[in-house]
Amino acid sequence: MKEFKNKVMFITGAGHGFGKVIAEEGARRGMKLALVDIDEPALTATAKAIEATGAQVLAIPADVTKEELVTKAIDQAMAKYGAIDLLVNDAGIALAGRMWELPTRDWEWILHANVLSQVYSMRKVIPIMLKQETRGTILNVSSIAGLVDTPGMPAYHASKFASVGMTEATAYDLQRANSGIEMHVMCPGFVQTDLYHTEQHRPAQYSDPSDPYYQSEAFKKGQQVAKYVITTGMPIDTIAATVFKALEDNEFYILTHPQFNPLILDRVNRIVNHKAPDVHVMDGLM
Ligand SMILES: NC(=O)c1ccc[n+]([C@@H]2O[C@H](COP(=O)([O-])OP(=O)(O)OC[C@H]3O[C@@H](n4cnc5c(N)ncnc54)[C@H](O)[C@@H]3O)[C@@H](O)[C@H]2O)c1
C-alpha cells in the first residue's frame, strides 16, 4: 500500500496500544478511520483526539468476539465511507496459564478474541475488497508468539500461530484469485502497551468469578508475568512508523525484535531435524 490519503482504514483494538498508534498515524497520513474497540471510554478518547486533528473518524464500540457485532461494524463503516482500503485486525488479549490449569472458558475467549475476530472481519471485508476498484490491504496483528513458543502461555501461542497460519494461507488464495489484495502479518516482541490489562476487557460471556482458578496462585503469577514483560518491553513510539513502512514496502512479515530471529531459525531447524522443543534455547532472551 503506497497511497494513504483519503483511503479508509477499518481497525479493531483502536482504544489502546498498537491499534491506537496505527490509527493516529493513518490520520496523520490523511486516512479516514473506522475505529472499533470493546473499551468504549478508551475508544471515545482515541476518536476525539484524532478528530481534533481534522481527520474523519467513526467510532464503533463493539466486542469482536461476536461475529454479528463485527459484521454490523463493517456495515456501519461501509455506510459512512463506501469502501474499506485497509483492514487492521489488531484487537487482542493475552492470557498466561499452563495447559492443565487455564480454564476452558479462557481458551474459548482467547481463540475468539485473537483468531475468530480476524476470521469474522476477513470473511466480510475480502468480498468487499474484491468488488471495489481500489486495491485492498489486510494487516493481521499476530505476535512473535505466532512464530516461536515459550513456556507458560500455550493458549496465547495457539491463537497467534493460528493468526500467522491463516494469514499465510489466505495470502495464497488471494494470489491464486489474482485479487491484488496485499496481506501482512505483524509479529512483534514485547512492547509497552496496555496488554497486561486484558482482564479489564473480559466479556461477560467468558466470565465466571466463582471459578477458584481466578483466586489461585497460578492466575496471580500469570498476571504478574504479563505485567512484567509488557512494562519492560520496547517503547511503543516507533511501532506506527515501522508498520507504515512495512505496508509501503509490501513486507509480508512485520517483525520488530531482531533479537528473536535466532529463536525462529532454531525452531525451523528443530522441525526439520525432528527435535523436541528445548526450554533452555531462550535462556537470556525471555
Ligand atoms: N504489546 C505486546 O508486547 C504485543 C506483542 C505481540 C503482539 N501483540 C498483539 O498486539 C495486539 C494489540 O495489543 P496491544 O499490545 O496493543 O494491547 P492493548 O491492550 O494496549 O490493546 C488491545 C486493544 O484491544 C481491545 N480489545 C480487547 N478485547 C476486545 C474485544 N473482545 N473486542 C474489541 N476490542 C477488544 C482492548 O480494549 C484494547 O484497546 C494484540 O493482538 C496483541 O496480542 C502485542
UniProtKB/TrEMBL annotation:
Domain of life: Bacteria
Pfam families membership: adh_short
Keyword annotations of the record: Oxidoreductase
Family matches, as InterPro entries: NAD(P)-bd_dom_sf, SDR_fam
Gene Ontology molecular function: any one: oxidoreductase activity
Gene3D superfamilies xref list: NAD(P)-binding Rossmann-like Domain
Keyword Membrane applies: no
The keyword Nucleotide-binding appears for this protein: no
Family that this chain belongs to: Belongs to the short-chain dehydrogenases/reductases (SDR) family.
Record PANTHER family: BLL7251 PROTEIN (PTHR43391:SF26), RETINOL DEHYDROGENASE-RELATED (PTHR43391)
Descriptive protein name: Short-chain dehydrogenase reductase SDR
